[in-house]
Amino acid sequence: xxxxxxxxxxxxxxxxxxxxxxxxxxxxxxxxxxxxxxxxxxxxxxxxxxxxxxxxxxxxxxxxxxxxxxxxxxxxxxxxxxxxxxxxxxxxxxxxxxxxxxxxxxxxxxxxxxxxxxxxxxxxxxxxxxxxxxxxxxxxxxxxxxxxxxxxxxxxxxxxxxxxxxxxxxxxxxxxxxxxxxxxxxxxxxxxxxxxxxxxxxxxxxxxxxxxxxxxxxxxxxxxxxxxxxxxxxx
Length: 235
Description:
Blueprint: E1 8-12, E2 30-31, E3 34-35, H1 36-47, E4 51-56, H2 60-67, E5 74-79, H3 85-92, H4 94-97, E6 102-106, E7 109-111, H5 115-124, E8 133-139, E9 152-154, E10 160-162, E11 171-179, H6 195-203, E12 207-211, E13 216-218, H7 222-233
Parallel strand pairs: 1-4, 1-6, 4-5, 8-12
Antiparallel strand pairs: 2-3, 6-11, 7-13, 8-11, 9-10
Helix pairs in contact: 1-5
């Protein structure tokens, strides 16, 4: 696969959402009248994705009932008896994702109006001959309500290296990416994070990134949800 939009995506929706307090499960929280998970699925559909696998765990029945009302994209559920984290969740759903590279998207993100175009751009630059992962990044100095140290350094050829534990990095990961299935060969049992897959791709020189330049926000706290409303109102 080189430059084609993946037909399949995974939307990560199994988190606990504990930072948001009481209320609906995090993927069903609304921003500008639309559930966060519907915003993610709408953006994937606009980008050209035909099938989305959604993993569920916490309050799974509510999320699955909500998704039953969607016609596009085609939804398949990967329910987790135990919470498997991001990497374990993708590995658990791999049979539903098929043998080609696929999008993975967090369900608690709010994107600007050109989000789908950026997913297509991410796909246009994905070359499976050289890459196992291509991540969409955001500058830390542009991120609102972000107090972290950054995640990645970006080389001139697009390759990424992860931030050293004792250092800082100018780019954070937005939660949108394209991954190759081979990253999940021989996965560990139980829960594990996608950072393990990134480390493998980096060691092999196959971890790449693209800097996103539109509006973006992680809506995982009440303050961020409020700011996301304001962001969309001004777009």
